[in-house]
Every structure is written in structure tokens, then in C-alpha cells.
């Protein structure tokens, strides 16, 4: 009796294998053969499901970003907690920052895969911080879109350049705890209304 195919399980294996492959090798260095082998899937099936390698990368990155958004919803009214949850997420999902780095190297500032969908998600984050600024929960030290950028950069940079973090900050548990406290303090200085308020 032939085994019953489960397309969703196959796609899940492909996503997992492709995420690891793209995070390790980037778009140019990734190999569909290796992804197929790791996913225990037919190479032609990968092309049928996702298109070419660049399209597969776009799907993988989009899924990773959607998972981040679902796991760490924007809570502009509590930036300390938001920074903590972002740092926790990046620590347990280092592949996301690697995927973003590879995308930057490949595409630069040119057309970006799924640009409109991603721009809409960033606009929603910006709107959350703008609303918090308007109601006085968050200081108006920076424009809201710049504030989202700075908080995201601070929370993710240790995963972007672990060698820089190791050389400058250190890599012991105490060093990591101190850096986290410093990032939280920096975010607090950028977001706390004058006289406290949260």
C-alpha cells in the first residue's frame, strides 16, 4: 500500500530545511539539492510549491517575519517588556537576523521581496508607537518610525554581529545580562515621558 502524501508536512520540512540552508549560506550559496535532501522531499516538488530559489528565500523570510510578529506583538505602551521579548526571540531564533543580513547583501536598497506586505507590518508598529506618543505613554524624543528602527536595531544587533558583541561586550552570562540591562535602559531613555509616566 502506497504511503499517503501530506503536502503540509512536506512544506513544513521544506521550510525548516530551507531556513537552515539560507541562514547558513545566503541566497547565492544555498543549494536546492541540500534543502531537498534535508527535507526528504523531491527537488522538483520544491520548485512546484515555491518557484525558484529566490522565491523560496522570499517565502522563508516572510514566514520568519510573520512568526516574529505573532510571537512578539508590538506593545508600545510597555517598551521595556517589548525590548525584553524581542531580545529573547532573537536569542532563540538567530536565523531570522541572519536571513535579514543575507537579504540586505543580496538586494541592498533595490526591490525587496514582498515589500508591500512588510511595509504594512512596519507601518502598524509605527502606528502603535505614534498612538502611545499621542496619549503620553511614550515620549516624543524620536519620530515613531525612527523609534521602531532604533529599538529593533538595539534588540537585534547582538545576533547580527555576535563577533562584535563578543569582542566589545564579552560573552559570559554576566556580560549578556549587563548588555540586556543597558539596551533596556537605552530604550527607557528614549521612551519614558518626562517625569516618568509608566
UniProtKB/TrEMBL annotation:
Q: From which source organism is this entry?
A: Streptomyces stramineus
- Point out the DNA-binding stretch(es): 31-50
Q: What is this protein called?
A: TetR family transcriptional regulator
User: Where does the source fall among the domains of life?
Assistant: Bacteria
Q: Which UniProt keywords apply?
A: DNA-binding
Report domain HTH tetR-type positions. Answer: 8-68
- A Pfam family annotated for this UniProt entry: TetR_N
Q: Which SUPFAM superfamilies match?
A: Homeodomain-like, Tetracyclin repressor-like, C-terminal domain
Amino acid at each position: 500500500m502506497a504511503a499517503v502524501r501530506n503536502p503540509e508536512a512536506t512544506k513544513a520540512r521544506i521550510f525548516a530545511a530551507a531556513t537552515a540552508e539560507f541562514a547558513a549560506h545566503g541566497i547565492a550559496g544555498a543549494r536546492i539539492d541540500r534543502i531537498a535532501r534535508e527535507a526528504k522531499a523531491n527537488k522538483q516538488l520544491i520548485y512546484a510549491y515555491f518557484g525558484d530559489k529566490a522565491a523560496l528565500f522570499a517565502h522563508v523570510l516572510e514566514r520568519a517575519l510573520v512568526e516574529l510578529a505573532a510571537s512578539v506583538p508590538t506593545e508600545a505602551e510597555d517598551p521595556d517588556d517589548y525590548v525584553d521579548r524581542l531580545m529573547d526571540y532573537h536569542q532563540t531564533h538567530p536565523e531570522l537576523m541572519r536571513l535579514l543580513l543575507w537579504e540586505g547583501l543580496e538586494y541592498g536598497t533595490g526591490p525587496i521581496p514582498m515589500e508591500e506586505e512588510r511595509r504594512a507590518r512596519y507601518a502598524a508598529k509605527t502606528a502603535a508607537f505614534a498612538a502611545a506618543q499621542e496619549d503620553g505613554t511614550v515620549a516624543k524624543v524620536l519620530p515613531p518610525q525612527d523609534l521602531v528602527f532604533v529599538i529593533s536595531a538595539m534588540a537585534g544587533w547582538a545576533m547580527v554581529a555576535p563577533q562584535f558583541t563578543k569582542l566589545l561586550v564579552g560573552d559570559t552570562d554576566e556580560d549578556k545580562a549587563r548588555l540586556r540591562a543597558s539596551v533596556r535602559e537605552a530604550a527607557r531613555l528614549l521612551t519614558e515621558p518626562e517625569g516618568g509616566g509608566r
